[in-house]
Here is the input.
Amino acid sequence: MRVATSRGDVSAKKLLVCTDAYTDGFDPWLRRRLVPVRSRIIATEPLGESVMGRLMPRKMMYGDTRQLSYYYRPSPDGSRILFGGRDGTTEGDPLAPTTHLCSELGRIFPELAGVGITHSWFGQVAMNRDMIPRMFSVGDTVYATGFCGSGVVWARWLGKKAAFKLLGQTEKAQSAFDFDPPPKAVPLYRGKPWFIPLVYSLYERRDKRAMRGKNESPKG
Here is the structure.
């Protein structure tokens, strides 16, 4: 096969593809299987040692089990809370999703309702239909992809496993994420996630219904 790059062409017998939310048109087959989703993070103003010690005593990363999950942790210097969630937009003004995250921050930490926010930014993460990261082969191409929001943790490790698989080093390549078949294509999707607002609306209703179920008192 031939790989064309900005610095020239490369001929190869096998190819390793380890890409995710920023997959572009170089691999249309893969792009139909990865949906880029915005993950937005906000950073509070410095909160002081006593507040941070009370709200984040174990200085850990936290996350919930909602379909539209939220995740939060202390900043590296321990002075702020970094709070994130799915953005719900594909383009446009960042004010609305930032305001939404501020509201959710105050819901989880009532003490922080109305706290100052100094930064808000987003990046793309990639989701596939079954929400499972994996490596797999299609012909002479080995893929490691679909990290579903956990690419910082998984990408380097699974990319290395995929490289061992490409080299035929079966024992070193062993992984619970090495399985077939490849993820299925998303119907009616050609690279622009037009359906994101609809999916988010559905997930939001499911989350609200689940929360109502938890808050209801048992009968009898």
Remarks:
- The mean pLDDT is 90.
- The chain has two domains: 1-34+128-206, 39-124.
